[in-house]
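Reviewers of the previous submission asked for a worked example of the structure-prediction workflow described in the proposal, so we include one complete record here. The input consisted solely of the amino acid sequence. No template or homolog information was supplied to the procedure at any stage.
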Amino acid sequence: MPKKSAVPARKLKITVLMGGASSERDVSFASGVRVAGALRERGHTVTALDPSGEVLSIEQERGYLSGAVKTAPPTPEFLASLRLPATLGERPEVREADVVFLGLHGGQGEDGTIQAMLDLAGVTYTGSGHLASALAMDKDLSKHLFRAAGVRTADWLMAPASDEEVEAALGFPVVVKPSKQGSTVGLTVVKKREELAPAIELARRYDDEVMIEQFVAGRELTVGILGDDALAVGEIIPKKEIYDYECKYTPGMAIEEFPAKLDRAATGAVQQQAVAAFRALKLGGYARLDFRMSADGHFYCLEANTLPGMTETSLIPQSAAACGIPFGELCERIVLLALERKRGSAT
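From that input alone, the workflow returned the following structure tokens.
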């Protein structure tokens, strides 16, 4: 059970960043407006800001609250039209905040870019620092660090790789995905040779580096981390072969069970692996680690999510709720962890 966080000594001025120039832009708005609302209910003064646009009005926030996440991500062409201003840290909504809550997902919001900008501006923000964020976003580097820390992960190659190389090293099926994307955007399960080239071409629309990973058949598990503690283990049972973008954001396309139906030994083992992976990447504050459990009982870490979805029904809030931590308290704990990190860096 995660340790109880202290209640803030005063009400805080918090800016929630959401939207941004990422393929997960729509998901980010869904998370951000819910975080903003939960923190307001805790008594804090909250501003909702799209770093690629302007401050959101209450009417705009309500629109994102009532609207469903689209079942397909924004196109790369649309995202190319958005820009992250280099002066973000100078905006009064950011500079004057006690804490900036990063409700962004993917892209420059999660790859260390915004974190580095806020560090340079001396702004306190939630989640991991810029280096850890960059490491976690790069799936190739993450997997090397997982293995160095003794965390099992599936074998992989980086494109370019010939059909023969892939078949010899990994066999089929394989998972082809952009190395630096989230929400399974641009991901394809490839079952035979002739499907490999089109899958790599699709992934390259979203990133210049493409990973080809051995497909691990089995159960889809997820573990939230809050502070230094593992939250409840969850299991995702998608209606499709893999928990893809459509399954994640279409109601009824997946069953999510918290806590997962695992025995005590298996639960403890995957939680231990999640904490080890979290530490291997030097993550901070909170994160979500995703795993596959094979038929022989081994756990394979797929990736770390440094800014996971934060709607009430997203995975890490469900993981926290299974530990008795309601959504509003979870949001406030994340804010307090950011303040604790800031105090620690100042000593």
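The mean pLDDT is 90. We consider this example representative of the routine output the project will generate in years two and three.
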